[in-house]
Please model this.
Amino acid sequence: MFAPHLARPTPTRVTAIAAFLASAACVARPHPGALERDVSVAPLDECPVVDRWAGAMGTGLALTIEAPSRAEALSASEAVLRAIEATEQRLSTWREDSELSELNRSAPGERIVLSSELAHELAAVHRWSRLTQGAFDPAVGALVRAWDLRGAGRIPTAEERQAAIVLGGIAAALELDGRSALRVDPSLLLEEGGFGKGAGLDAALSALRGTKACSATLDFGGQVAWYAPIGAHAPRGESGGPDAATDRRGARGRPFDIADPRDRSRRIATLRSARNSAATSGNSEHARVVGGRTIGHLLDPRSGEPAANFGSVTVVADLAIDADCLSTGLFVLGPERALEFAAEHAAIDVVVVEVLPSGHLRLRASAGVAETIELLVEDIDSSDAGPSHNPRPPTDR
Model:
């Protein structure tokens, strides 16, 4: 999953946050146990904005928080970091003492009592696994090991791949009943890489509701979430999250940029959305070359093979965990099915960027955001995107 390269209104501040690792593999990398923190604040006579950076879940968290006072902004940022720390403690399979690791070690047939947070998160991923027909599924731990995606990478044999596939995925291998879970399949190993950052962002947004923060932007290894408690709200979406109709400055939605999947430093389009989080997935950023073969880090749980690398999929949703799960699952499904899925589910929006054989790009978007998209470069082919998917052409800047 990689960054949509956020473009946001910039309040007055003294320093901007330093560049950080803006992309995380589907599988998090090991890191020191404690969050590493960095902070810069605006002086008292300017707009009270706090920029912070922290290392968590093997990637970086950059947060910008605005509050009535500097002290309140700092307090809100601490609430965010505590929420992320708690999520990592619960979900990280790099930690032997995490709740998810303990579930992975539980004996088949042994019913385990879950925290309310983990029960909620597993219910969400279970649902999206079902709705994507297994294209997104966290039951890929054995496949991650088979391909050595936490190491240098390897190419498993056909027999090894088949042995690592969990037939029926999480739906068949893990029985959920409220706040309890039971591993049915002894080979089941759940992997948090496809939903952990989204879960952390949702926890952070929830924590911000108990603070004095006026607005916040959180960029967690490339997945972005926004917080703006002031403003009108649209009806609750399919997943239960509100659509923030306006931010505190009165603008319709939040602006952010879409990057070239071949070069994330290159902005190719900008769009606006009133939803709360955006996640982008592609299979080029963390590819490994093994024996002359390029191996992407996003696996198709159904075939046990890396998903085809066609470009990128960005999903915008009310809940960050939904955006996280679906950016992975819809990338696995491919561009056509990703757009069809968005048309079938009103609570999400999708932007697909494809690298064409000509070397040009093709950008298509679901109806909910298509009219807000403005192309920033000339080498994008949108001629066959269809009336509901066609963005505005580049303008002179």
Q: What stands out?
A: The chain has three domains: 36-93+196-243, 104-190, 254-375. The chain is about 25% helix and 25% strand. The mean pLDDT is 82. The two ends are 29 Å apart (CA to CA).
